[in-house]
DNA sequence: CGCCGTATTGAGCGCTCTCAAGCTAGGTGG
DNA sequence: CCACCTAGCTTGAGAGCGCTCAATACGGCG
C-alpha cells in the first residue's frame, strides 16, 4: 500500500472494487484508504481473523494470501467450511446470524481490507447500481462448493482442483499453481483423510492428468480432470 | 385466496411478507394481489415450476405445499439440492447466473406466489428498511443444509429430521409431522440410498427417539436426536 | 547436518452400497 | 366388500470404497 502501482495491482480482480471509491480504481497517491475500506489488516500464517460468536461488523476482502474458515466437530476433528483467496470476500454468512459462525485463520501471510457492514449498506443505498451487484455477489456464494455433494472421493478431489485452478493465479508465465494448503486441509474440506487425498493425487498423477509435488500443482489435462470430476472415468 | 382469512393465514410465517403491501399484512378484501406478487401459481404433485437454463426472472414464495430442486448426475442418479416448504423462497441462487440451475418440481399440491425480481428490486430501492432485510434473507440461505457435511449417515439423517421439524408445521394440536417426501427423496438429498434411510429410521425408532410409519413422523426425544446429529451416541 | 512436521504407501477393517427378497398401504375393478 | 395390483418401504447378505493404524520417505529450517 506504499505506492499506487502496488495498490492497484492488489485490487485487480477483487470482487469488492466497485464498492471502493475512485482513488482505488483510477489512481491517486494511494496513501489513504477508500471510503468503504476503513482498515488494512496483515495476518501471518496461522493467525486468526475472527472466532465463532464474535459480533458481525465487517466484511473482509482478501488483497493477498488465503484463509480458511472451519469449526471443530464433536469428535475433535476440524471441518473446513470454506477457503478464501485473493479478491474474495468473507462475512456474508454472518449477516443472518449477527455473529461469525466459524473460525477464520490465515493459511499464508495475508493482507485484508476491512469493510464495516454499515459503510457497505450506506454505499449500496447511495448508489442504486450497487444494489444489483451486491445481490449478485452474495448469490454467487450460494453456488460455491456445489461439488462437495459428489459421491466419490475422486470426483470431489478432481472438482476441487478445478475450482482451485479457477480461483488461484498461476505462477508468472506458467500453468503451475502454488497450493497454500496441506493435504490435511484438503481432506478436512472434502471430508476425506489426508491419506486418501495423497493416494488420489498419486493416482491422478499416474494417469498423467496432473503433476503434483508437495505444494506445486500443474494440471496437465483439464478436460480429463473434468471427466474425473463428473465420475465418467 | 378467495377470502381474507385464507389469504392471511397463508401468509403467516412467510419470509416475504414484509415485501408485500399492506392489504396482505393488515386486511382488505384479498381479491387483488399485492404490489410485488404478480401472479399465483398452483402446481399439482410432480408438476414442474422451472427447469435448468430457464431465464431467471422471478422469486417464488411458497404459500402452501413443498418443492424440491434437483439435478441429474452423469450416472443418471437424481441429486436433490434443496427442499422448500411453506413460507420459504426459491430463486436466490439464480441471481448470480441469470438462469435457474436446477429443476424444481412440486412434492405435493402446491400454491406459489410469483415475485418478479424487477419488482423486488424496486421495492427494496423504495424502502431502505427492506435492504437490510433482503441481505438477511439471502444470507440465511448460505447457512442452510450445513449438516450435509456431517460424516456419518446417522448424523446427517438425524440433523435432517431436526431441520424438518423446524420447517414443517406439525398436524393440528400434535407433534406429528406429515412427511411430504419419500425415503428415496431423503436419500437423494442426504447422499444415501433409500435402503440406508429406511434402516436408520428403524434404528432411531428402536432407540425410542422417533416414531415413524410411512409418511408420519413423531419426534419423541428431541434432545437425544440432537446427540445423534452430533455423533455423540 | 539433524530435526520435525508433512507426505506417501501398505494392510486390514467397517460403514454404506448393491442386489435381492418380502412386506405394507392405498387404489382399482369385479 | 374383497381380491388384486403396484409403488414404496423394510430387511438381509455380501461387496467395495474410504478409514484407521502403522511404517517409511521427504523437505524445510534451525
Rg of chain A, alpha carbons? 19 Å
Pair with the most extensive interface? A-B, 36 and 36 residues
Supply the helix-strand structural class of chain A: alpha+beta
Output the strand order for the largest sheet of chain A.
1-8-3-6
Taking all residues together, what is the mean pLDDT of chain A? Answer: 90
Output the CATH topology of the largest domain in chain A: Jelly Rolls
Taken from the alpha-carbon principal axes, the silhouette of chain A is globular
Characterize the largest beta sheet of chain A: strand count, sense, and whether it forms a barrel: 4 strands, antiparallel
Oligomer: homodimer
- Total discrete domains of chain A: 2
Low-pLDDT runs of chain A? 1-6, 22-32
Tally of individual helices of chain A? 9
Give the second-level CATH assignment, the architecture of the largest domain in chain A: Sandwich
Tell me the fraction of residues in β-strands of chain A, as a range: 15-25%
Number of strands of chain A: 11
Give the distance, in angstroms, between the N- and C-terminal Cα atoms of chain A.
47 Å
CATH class of the largest domain in chain A: Mainly Beta
Amino acid at each position: 500500500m506504499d505506492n499506487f502501482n502496488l495498490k492497484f495491482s492488489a485490487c485487480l480482480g477483487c470482487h469488492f472494487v466497485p464498492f471502493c471509491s475512485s482513488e482505488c480504481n483510477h489512481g491517486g497517491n494511494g496513501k489513504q484508504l477508500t471510503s468503504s475500506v476503513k482498515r488494512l489488516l496483515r495476518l501471518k500464517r496461522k493467525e486468526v481473523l475472527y472466532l465463532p460468536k464474535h459480533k458481525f461488523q465487517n466484511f473482509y476482502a482478501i488483497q493477498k494470501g488465503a484463509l480458511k474458515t472451519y469449526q471443530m466437530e464433536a469428535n475433535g476433528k476440524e471441518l473446513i467450511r470454506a477457503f478464501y483467496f485473493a479478491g474474495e470476500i468473507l462475512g456474508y454468512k454472518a449477516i443472518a446470524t449477527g455473529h461469525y459462525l466459524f473460525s477464520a485463520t490465515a493459511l499464508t501471510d495475508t493482507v485484508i481490507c476491512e469493510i464495516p457492514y454499515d459503510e457497505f449498506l450506506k454505499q449500496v443505498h447511495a448508489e442504486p447500481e450497487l444494489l444489483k451487484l451486491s445481490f449478485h455477489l452474495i448469490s454467487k456464494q450460494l453456488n460455491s462448493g456445489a461439488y462437495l455433494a459428489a459421491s466419490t472421493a475422486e470426483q470431489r478431489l478432481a472438482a476441487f482442483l478445478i475450482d482451485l485452478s479457477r480461483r488461484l493465479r498461476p505462477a508468472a508465465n506458467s500453468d503451475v499453481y502454488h497450493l497454500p494448503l496441506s493435504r490435511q486441509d484438503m481432506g478436512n474440506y472434502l471430508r476425506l483423510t489426508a491419506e486418501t487425498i495423497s493416494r488420489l493425487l498419486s493416482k491422478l498423477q499416474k494417469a498423467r492428468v496432473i503433476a503434483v509435488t508437495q505444494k506445486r500443482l500443474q494440471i496437465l489435462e483439464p478436460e480429463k480432470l473434468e471427466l474425473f470430476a463428473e465420475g465418467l472415468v
